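Work Package 4 report. The design task specified in the project plan requires that, given a folded chain encoded as structure tokens, an amino acid be chosen for each position. We show below one input record used in the internal validation round.
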């Protein structure tokens, strides 16, 4: 295998070590993503390819990562994958702007800052700030629910709202819900696990449970929304693709003063009966031109996963599964 040395240059050893990662971790991630061998040789990087377009893209990725590190931005494997993916279609200035201009949403319980991880997540946050109702549509893994929950927690901490309400329909559980042990809350909790995970990361288990017990954070099935007006609250409807038109109308008309409503869903994962129309599809079409409402659409590029997962998905796509 013939190696090519990249034109990329590093100004100091700190930048070099941050870009390649501990034990060359970032190099290994990029090698898996680009499906080429990438090596360090002294303070240079060699790649096992003669493809000029691929070499140029890898150089573009490394040059952008260098600029990020030099701007005192800590990068991890997720950032390396995202920058490499964006480098295919986006110029360096736009990529850098995303990282340099992003604002901290809140912090984890351990004090680690939480930022928008992708450009569309940043647009999502801006849409939430500017509108009282935001629909967030896209595949799993794009951060639709996570970003909404941590943003809600930041608003609660700042005193901008007095209550967080997290809800979702139980349609995907179907008749099997009746066979699960426990009362209704215990039956529905497994389907709300992604919401709990985000709460635990920011608040910890103890404070989360205390706020739930006090009613400051309410986690409940969609049916519990009937007859209520939700004021001074941050309300998140998750898995909204599984609402009917009637359920969606019921939810949206609960909006009260000084409140935010976020509706998230994945249109490729609809579990309604074949003839039923998804309330999410219907609502986004019906309300698309209404002032104060915005629709953010996430794409596959926003799904930042281990490179092996992408290869697995490609093989399954070939099998039409």
């Amino acid at each position: 295998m013939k190696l090519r040395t990249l034109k990329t240059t590093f100004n100091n050893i700190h930048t070099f070590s941050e870009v390649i990662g501990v034990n060359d971790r970032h190099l290994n991630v990029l090698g898996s993503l680009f499906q080429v061998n990438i090596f360090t040789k002294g303070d240079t990087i060699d790649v096992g390819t003669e493809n000029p377009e691929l070499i140029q893209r890898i150089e573009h990725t490394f040059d952008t990562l260098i600029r990020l590190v030099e701007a005192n931005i800590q990068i991890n494997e997720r950032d390396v994958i995202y920058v490499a993916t964006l480098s295919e279609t986006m110029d360096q200035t736009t990529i850098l702007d995303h990282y340099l201009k992003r604002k901290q949403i809140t912090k984890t319980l351990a004090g680690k800052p939480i930022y928008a991880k992708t450009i569309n997540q940043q647009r999502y946050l801006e849409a939430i700030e500017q509108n009282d109702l935001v629909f967030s549509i896209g595949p799993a893994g794009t951060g639709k629910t996570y970003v909404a929950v941590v943003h809600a927690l930041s608003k609660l901490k700042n005193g901008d709202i007095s209550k967080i309400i997290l809800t979702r329909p139980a349609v995907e559980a179907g008749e099997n819900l009746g066979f699960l042990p426990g009362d209704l809350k215990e039956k529905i909790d497994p389907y709300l696990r992604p919401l709990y995970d985000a709460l635990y990361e920011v608040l910890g288990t103890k404070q989360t449970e205390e706020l739930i017990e006090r009613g400051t954070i309410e986690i409940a099935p969609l049916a519990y929304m009937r007859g209520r007006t939700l004021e001074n609250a941050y309300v998140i409807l998750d898995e909204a693709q599984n609402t009917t038109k009637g359920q969606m109308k019921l939810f949206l008309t609960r909006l009260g003063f000084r409140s935010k409503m976020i509706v998230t869903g994945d249109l490729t994962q609809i579990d309604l009966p074949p003839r039923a129309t998804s309330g999410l599809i219907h609502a986004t079409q019906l309300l698309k031109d209404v002032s104060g409402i915005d629709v953010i659409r996430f794409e596959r590029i926003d799904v930042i996963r281990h490179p092996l997962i992408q290869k697995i998905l490609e093989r399954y796509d070939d099998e039409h599964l």
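Confidence is low (pLDDT under 50) at residues 172-177. Validation will be extended to a larger panel in the next phase.
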